[in-house]
Amino acid sequence: MGIKFRETDVRAMGRGATGVKGIELREGDVVVEMDLVSETDTLLAVTEHGYGKRTDMAEYRQQARGGTGVINVKVTERNGYVVAIKSVADGDHLLLITEQGLLIRIAASDVRETGRAAQGVRLIDVAEGDRVVAVAKLAEGDGEPGDDDGGGAEPDATAGETPAGENG
Q1: Which of 116, 128, 141, 166 has its CA 20 to 30 A from that of 9?
Q2: Do the beta carbons of residue 25 and residue 31 sit within 8 Å?
Q3: Tens of pLDDT, residue by residue, the chain (168 residues)
Q4: Phi and psi (nearest 5°) for 75?
Q5: How distant is the alpha carbon of residue 133 from its chain centre?
Q6: Domain extents for the chain?
Q7: Is the pTM of this model over 0.70?
Q8: CA distances from 3 to 22, 37, 43, 163 (A)
Q9: Helix/strand/coil for 103
Q10: Fold type of domain 7-137
């Protein structure tokens, strides 16, 4: 299940506060992840058996926080439980990581868009006894072929220096 509500529906609180309810969980459900979304992006859901799908944000109606949400992925024995969700655009790239250390990089645009209740398509071939445990969205320009940024900004010539006469 997934729920979309406004960030402003959650008021600012101190560290000691217990927070507010974002979604009403059914027996056996757990919150996997949350993400800030843009209406122009799609929501990528990835399951433990290596399946995933992208769904247009317009398919998720806005609700008040604390509701039960809407179906996000049809969970079956074939695809397994959802392990990650990410708000993605066509230019984004992702890393999928399995429990046994298999790592694969995919372009978000390579994942077919489907409806909310779909099971998804295979993103990574997961061996028997292995499962996807994490998905990371790469920062823009993170090692893409053709990147000219050389991996970072020019070093500052004065970085780490202190003015004469100051104790550092």
Answers
A1: 116
A2: yes
A3: 988 988 888 888 889 988 888 899 999 889 999 888 888 889 999 999 999 999 998 888 888 888 888 888 888 899 999 999 999 998 999 999 999 999 999 999 999 888 877 788 899 999 999 999 999 999 765 555 554 444 444 334 434 444 444 444
A4: -80, 125
A5: 12
A6: 7-137
A7: yes
A8: 8, 12, 12, 53
A9: strand
A10: Neuraminidase (2.120.10)
